[in-house]
Amino acid sequence: xxxxxxxxxxxxxxxxxxxxxxxxxxxxxxxxxxxxxxxxxxxxxxxxxxxxxxxxxxxxxxxxxxxxxxxxxxxxxxxxxxxxxxxxxxxxxxxxxxxxxxxxxxxxxxxxxxxxxxxxxxxxxxxxxxxxxxxxxxxxxxxxxxxxxxxxxxxxxxxxxxxxxxxxxxxxxxxxxxxxxxxxxxxxxxxxxxxxxxxxxxxxxxxxxxxxxxxxxxxxxxxxxxxxxxxxxxxxxxxxxxxxxxxxxxxxxxxxxxxxxxxxxxxxxxx
Length: 271
What we know:
Helices cover 38% and strands 19% of the residues. By secondary structure, it is α/β, with parallel strands linked by helices. The chain folds into two domains: 12-162, Rossmann fold, CATH 3.40.50; 175-266, Pantoate--beta-alanine Ligase, Chain: A,domain 2. The radius of gyration is 19 Å and the shape is globular. The model has no long low-confidence stretch (mean pLDDT 96).
């Protein structure tokens, strides 16, 4: 296996798991991985078990040739592209249940999603045994789920978070942005802008419930159908009603047929 010579030389290895359709956000993960380890693996696998029955598995963007070119230019050491049959062979029956953290917010909106994520990431970490694995904070709940399963299952990989990569107008980079029409893309920037405005209002002393209601209303006025906008504890994602500890303002909303997620950190007010 390609990783064995690295191990024999005691070189450190990082994994950047992706579903392909790579963009600048993915490449910031690769760049960070290159800074902290000697060898970098990028996995490309569109994982069917994390998509619901009415979700976009069949239309999820696939650009393998462009992805491989981008990774080669970036100096990625290894690209891991298993097939569905390799990851889930006939008779496969085991699932990783990440517990209560996977039942709220995205877990409530997308039942079974995090079980699929937890299972495939656990398999990657055990197959490749990286010293570190890097995940973007755009999928903040996913990051916490993965930290939970590695901790609970004693998987020896350091999970590293990387700040959200954004376009010049503030929209979080996502492979699903490719689904947006030009008009939808123009209006989509309301999501990060409203989140920032809502976060500033909360940090400035506004009533949390009122600020959230106002934020949802502004998103609806911008053409979004809001799945949720919630202020949650940054570690547990339990809902919070006072700004006494680190929190995350998280939102998921649809514009047209495209579902976008984003989040903003809010720290306690200075005394």
